[in-house]
Amino acid sequence: MDVAANLDTISSNIKQSCSKNNRNPEEITIIGVTKYVTIERTEETIQAGISNLGENRLEGFLEKYNYFGKRAKWHFIGTLQSRKVKEIVDKVDVIHSLDRLSLAKEIDKRTEQPMECFIQVNVSGEASKHGLHPDDVQRFVEDLAPYSNIRVVGLMTMAPHIDDEQRLRRIFRELVTLRDSIRDQKITYAPCNYLSMGMSNDYQVAIEEGATHIRIGSKLVGSKG
């Protein structure tokens, strides 16, 4: 596993996908998902030039944070229990899984400065996935108004792991439309400029449809090691 070589391939693919819509590849943030790999592989990832790292389990995140500290910008990309917020809120930089008011309330209470959050949306409707129904996002954003330490920077979704490119595009486009509707309202606490969508199997399609943040695990760092 050569993370630097993998990154070269991913960067080339990003440029190719961006060229289809006249996008600047610098608009794309690669989040290296290190949840399955060791400290050593994570070090290799940082050395390769990836400064944004994603973890989805509290224990794994704390282990890596205690080792690397602020050498990386940390994205919590998994389901976050409200009672666990106090253990990560002073360490994580971005939360990608805001999907309920009880979680927003706890984040707001525990942090001393605005936390960048993506609202998680279950566009595909799969029962196995967390997130708000698309029809509930507008009301949820409005209900976040009292929580001054919540800053909605964008929307996040997880697409099914499928080969049906047209279905993937429909899912990503629905999130884009939803993001645009929130962003265009110019809500102070919800600028909603970003789209966290696309993983190892579908990031090129996601970029073609407007992704700004892609979460890459196996294609970048491998599935173990």
Word description of this protein:
39% of the residues lie in helices and 17% in strands. The protein has helices at residues 3-19, 39-47, 58-68, 85-88, 101-110, 137-143, 165-183, 203-209, 218-221; strands at residues 29-33, 52-55, 73-76, 94-98, 115-120, 150-156, 194-196, 213-216. The N and C termini lie close together (8 Å). The mean pLDDT is 96.
Comma- or semicolon-separated keywords:
225 residues, eight-stranded parallel β-sheet, 9 helices
Quick overview:
Helix 1 (3-19) packs parallel to helix 8 (203-209). It is globular, with a radius of gyration of 17 Å.
Cross-sheet strand order for the largest sheet: 7-6-5-4-3-2-1-8
Radius of gyration from CA coordinates: 17 Å
DSSP summary, beta strand count = 8
Please estimate the helix content.
Answer: 25-40%
Which spans of ≥5 residues are poorly predicted at pLDDT below 50? none
Largest sheet: 8 strands, parallel
Distance between the termini: 8 Å
Question: How is the secondary structure organized here?
Answer:
Layout: H1 3-19, E1 29-33, H2 39-47, E2 52-55, H3 58-68, E3 73-76, H4 85-88, E4 94-98, H5 101-110, E5 115-120, H6 137-143, E6 150-156, H7 165-183, E7 194-196, H8 203-209, E8 213-216, H9 218-221
